[in-house]
Known about the structure:
The structure holds 2 protein chains of 2 kinds. Chain A has helices spanning about 5-20, 60-65, 145-155, 185-195, and strands spanning about 35, 40, 45, 70-75, 75, 105-110, 115-125, 130, 145. Chain A is built from 4 helices and 9 strands; from the N terminus they run αβββαββββββαα. Chain A is of the alpha/beta class. Chain A has a 3-stranded mixed beta sheet with strand order 1-7-6, covered by helices on one side. Chain A has one domain: Collagenase (Catalytic Domain) (3-Layer(aba) Sandwich). Chain B is globular. Chain B is an alpha+beta fold. In chain B, strands 1, 2, 3, 6, 7, 8, 9 and 10 form an 8-stranded antiparallel beta sheet that branches. In chain B, strands 4-5 form a two-stranded antiparallel ribbon. In chain B, helix 3 (about 30-35) crosses helix 5. In chain B, a hairpin with a 2-residue loop joins strand 8 and strand 9. The chains are: A alpha/beta, B alpha+beta. The interface of A and B includes residues 82, 113, 148 and 163 of A. Strand 6 (about 105-110) of chain A pairs antiparallel with strand 5 of chain B.
Amino acid sequence: MKKQTIFALAIAAVIVVASADPAMAYVLLSPRRTWASTPVNVPVYSAGNNSIADGSGGVNAVSNAIEVWGVVNSSVTNTAAVRGQAPATITLNSNGHICNGSCLAATLTGYYTGNTITDADVYTNTKYKYYSSGEADGCSGEYDIEGIMVHEVGHVIGIGHSNVSGATMYPSVAACNAGNRSLEADDIAAKNDLY
Amino acid sequence: MHRRSLILVSLLLALAVPLSASQFIDMPFDQVAREATYVVRGQVVDTWSAWDASHEVIYTYATVRVSRYFGEIAGPDTLMVREVGGTVDGYTQEAIGFPALRRSENVVLFLSQWEDGADYRIHAYNQGKYLVRERGGVEVLVSDPVKQGEARAERHDRFDMATDGAALGIEEFALMVNDARAGISTSGPRTRE
């Protein structure tokens, strides 16, 4: 075989190997941590996000969406999040003074040395505009609140970022992309690893 | 394409995945450089963590000894940088995907002042922190591969292509900061979500 052919094949092999997504590439938070029992109670604070025109400011849509994880039980609560104390609470109308600027949403999670998660609260940057499946006017440059919160609740239950493009736990999301509302095989594998 | 722009675009593309932390919107380099109060090269000489006054959030405070200010503004020799997350009395609180400062790290930071204090925070989250590595006697900047909630990497100061990936020379970086803060675009407007 000619040297050039061997070289070309070697380069092609390197490119294929480098570009291939691993079949299962989920990453768990480090150190590995879980809640003591399931279902994990993750209520959504009843004050909705002003940019979401679905009647509840995204509260009901998010409460329904995050149960896709199968180990999460959600509801709507009138009690605001108390950081450092359970339950894990999603807040759609406040950045919690931690998520501003280029931050869309943030999860603040807490655990003791035994690696049992005891609290995890999620905040939303109200500087940006969001939409939900309950809106009639579609999407224009907005971010899908259900997909964002399904991703954040992945962190709440102990999952980190995946290398698999298309997975809900993949670390980037585009405006008007609602793909993160549903879980991919990689996300489910991560959840099944923990619970 | 201008050489500096080419380097910047290459660096940003190479760093795209690590920089795109969860649920953050990547900002153009120019914007990050313009908005930051200070852009500094320094070393983290001390860190400690404490609850806030309402006992809701643990912050980690880092004393950064500044060896160089980039851009037109200079400041004190030492800056106090505060970031969400830390450990107090065996309880750890983390803001998943946020940057963290660790003792003895050599860093370049974009800093802006907290609205509730006189101390500073890393501006634009992970886009505002670089680690300083040594490559052939020259300092280069790389993205910090370890965010909050991720496994700690072994500390090293020498550039390692396998673990560090793309790097940017610190003098090239200094020119880019100067240009950005002077209103000269270092790259076209771009936003990656």
